[in-house]
Known about the structure:
The chain has helices at residues 2-24, 55-80, 92-121, 132-156; strands at residues 29-30, 34-36, 40-43, 46-49, 86-87, 90-91, 129-130.
Amino acid sequence: MTCYKILALVALSFSLVFLGTALFGDYWISASVTHEGIWLACSGLFCSHYSSGIRFLDVTRTFIIFSCIAASSAGILAFSSFNSPFLGKFSKVLIAAILSFVSAGCVVISMAVYTGEIGKVLPNIASSHYAWSFILGWTAFPLLLIAGALFLAAHVFSPPE
Length: 161
């Protein structure tokens, strides 16, 4: 059904915007005058890049990038399904649903690793809290699940060809 595909594309678009903002935003953790992301740590007006080798940040970055790739591929396939619904003998909408669920899995892995590792040091930092980039990263997860479910519904309720 076209309605399900359009709603799924809307949810997928929002999740991609949220993931991109989370990936490049440097407000994952915030305190009084400092804030940190997965690429930078800033204190006042001065920012410095993290050195590679902080493994949980590497895992977080990698899985968010994988998630963006999978979600983008799902969107391209779903958008192209309006023109031709099949890729070989497979439904493009079904592949988009699978890619949306894979993307959601990558998001939950990356966010859970970050939450678990930073949670060990967060209580030691005075007046620190999770910030908006972190929240947008977690918000992308249910949106990707919704998009995958809507793509799946579009596949199930589409007339056979």
